[in-house]
Amino acid sequence: MHPPTHRSLASKISRQLSKNSLAATAARLRALSRQRSSAIRRWASTQGIPIAVRGRIANSVVSQYAAAHP
């Protein structure tokens, strides 16, 4: 077996850092998505629009929310 070279070690570290930052970015996007969904659900309920506590939010509700929050 050959000992790892500086270049191969640097490459492995770089790939791992990329994976970590992608995972962190994905986690942030999921959190923002959950926050936005929660805001839409609160808004819809105050507007008297029927909406489930969980699951997909109908596009029509999302569109109404977007129109009300330019």
Written description of the protein model:
By secondary structure, this protein is mainly alpha-helical. The chain has helices at 6-46, 59-68. The protein has one domain (6-68).
Count of all domains: 1
Total number of beta strands: 0
Q: What class do helices, strands and sheet pairing give?
A: mainly alpha
Average of per-residue pLDDT values: 84
Supply Rg.
Answer: 21 Å
Q: Please give the alpha-carbon distance between the first and last residues.
A: 62 Å
Q: Please state the oligomeric state of the protein chains shown.
A: single chain
Unreliable parts: none
Note the overall shape. Answer: rod-shaped
Order of helices and strands: HH
Number of helices: 2
- Sketch the major β-sheet: none
Helix content: over 70%
The percent range for strand residues is under 5%
Give a quick rundown of the structure.
With 70 residues, the chain is mostly helical.
What's the arrangement of secondary structure elements?
Blueprint: H1 6-46, H2 59-68
Q: Which descriptors apply to this entry?
A:
2 helices, mainly alpha, 70 residues
